[in-house]
Amino acid sequence: MIRSYTDYSLRKHNTFGTNAITRYYFEFTEAEDLKGYLETTNEWRNREILILGEGSNLLFINDFQGLIINPNIPGIKITYEDRNNIWLEVGAGVKWDDLVEYSVFNCWGGIENLSLIPGKVGAAAVQNIGAYGMEIQNQIESVTGFDLETQTEYTLEASECLYAYRDSIFKNQMKDRFIITSVVFKLDKFPEFILNYGDLKAETEKLGAVNLRNIRKTVISFRESKLPDPKVMGNAGSFFKNPIIETSVAEQLITVYSNMPHYPAPEGYTKLAAGWLIEQCGWKGFRRGDAGVHDKQALVLVNYGNATGKEIFNLSEEIKKSVHDKFGMELEREVNVIG
Ligand SMILES: Cc1cc2nc3c(=O)[nH]c(=O)nc-3n(C[C@H](O)[C@H](O)[C@H](O)COP(=O)(O)OP(=O)(O)OC[C@H]3O[C@@H](n4cnc5c(N)ncnc54)[C@H](O)[C@@H]3O)c2cc1C
C-alpha cells in the first residue's frame, strides 16, 4: 500500500503532538513500492529528506519543505533457529513493543527490558534504543535498507552499524540517506536476565517467578508510573542524553555535589543523570504556556496541549544553558530537532 500527499499535516505523526506541514509525504508498505516511487517521481531529488517512524523522537520546529518517507513495512518472520537462538527478520514498520510482546510470549529473551518503548523497529535500529540496563545493539544481527545516494539495497552487519550509546552510523554518515526496511534480531531461547538496574529484580520477584513475562510486566509498570503517556500528554521521552564525562571531572563534581547520581561508563569515563542535573537547576515541573518540564521526570519535556515546536525548543535551550552555567557541562539532545 502506498500513501502519497502534498502539504500534509504531521500532527498525528509526532508524539509531541505539535503541528507542522510537510511539502511531500510518501508512505509505503513494501520495499518494491519505494523503488517504483523513486524511479517515477522527482519530488525527492535535490530536496531535504526525512525518514519517519512513529515520530516519538522528533520535534518539528518549522514546516518541512522537503519529502518525508515513511517505510511502514509490516511482518515478523523466523529466518533461522538452532538449539539456543532464534533469528527474526522484522519489517521496519512493526511497532517496537509488538515485537517485544511477541518475543516474550514465545519465551525468547534479549529485549524484554525494552518493553513499552514507543516507536517502530526501523528507528529502534537507528537509535540503539536502551532502557533498564539493556541496549538493542546486543540483539541486532543485521540491518537492511535502501541507500538513496547509491540507489541500491544492501545489508549492514551489526559490526558495521557503529553502535554506541544512543548512536549508530544511521544517525551520522547514513542519516536521511539509508532507509531501513528490515532488521534481523538474534534472540535467546535460554536468556540470562539483566536485573541489576534499580529495583527491577526486587519488583519482579514480588510477582512470583522471575521470567520474561514478569520482567516485562515490571518494566511496563515502572514506565507507566514514571513517564507521561504521549497519547495523554505530548512528549518524546528523554529530551537529552545522559552525559558521559571524564571520571576525573566527575570526581571533582562529586566533591561539591556528594549526592550526584553517577554510573559506570567505558573505562576512564562516568555517566551522569541528565534528569538530576536539570532538576538541580530548578526546572522540574516548570511550565510556560503549554510547554513544560514533566513534574515526575525532569528529563522529559512536555506539550500540555497547544505548545508549538519552537516553544518547546526554546525551553530546551534555556535548560541547556542553565545546566552549562551551573555544572560547566554541555547537554546533548537525544530528540531530533527538525526545521
Ligand atoms: C514516552 C517515551 C518514552 C521513551 N523511552 C525511551 C527509552 O526508554 N529508551 C530509548 O532509547 N528511547 C526512548 N524513547 C524515544 C523513542 O521512543 C525512540 O527513540 C524510538 O526508537 C523512536 O522511534 P520512532 O519510530 O518514533 O522514530 P522517529 O522519531 O520517527 O525517528 C527517529 C529517528 O530515526 C530515523 N528513522 C526512523 N525510521 C527510520 C528508518 N526506517 N530508516 C532510517 N531512519 C529512520 C528518523 O529519521 C529520526 O532520525 C521514548 C519516547 C517516548 C515518547
Q: Can you give a write-up of this model?
A:
The chain has 339 residues and is an alpha+beta fold. The protein folds into three domains: 2-71, Uridine Diphospho-n-acetylenolpyruvylglucosamine Reductase, domain 2; 76-226, Uridine Diphospho-n-acetylenolpyruvylglucosamine Reductase, domain 3 (2-Layer Sandwich); 234-338, Uridine Diphospho-n-acetylenolpyruvylglucosamine Reductase, domain 1. 25% of the residues lie in helices and 29% in strands. The chain contains eight helices and 20 strands. The strands form six sheets. The protein has a five-stranded antiparallel sheet with strand order 6-7-12-10-11, with helices on one face. β17 and β18 (291-293) form a beta hairpin. The longest helix has 19 residues, at 309-327. It is globular and about 60 Å long. It starts with a strand and ends with a strand. The mean pLDDT is 96. It binds flavin-adenine dinucleotide. Flavin-adenine dinucleotide (FAD) binds next to β3, α3, β8, β12 and β13. Residues 15, 50-58, 71, 92, 117-120, 122-124, 126-127, 129-131, 170, 179-180, 227, 230, 235-237, 336 line the site of flavin-adenine dinucleotide.
Largest sheet: 5 strands, antiparallel
- The ordered string of helix (H) and strand (E) elements is EEHEEEEEHHEEEEEHHEEHEEHEEEHE
Parts with pLDDT < 50 across at least 5 consecutive residues: none
Please give the count of helices.
8
What percent of residues are in strands? 25-35%
CATH fold descriptor of the largest domain: Uridine Diphospho-n-acetylenolpyruvylglucosamine Reductase, domain 3
Give the % helix.
10-25%
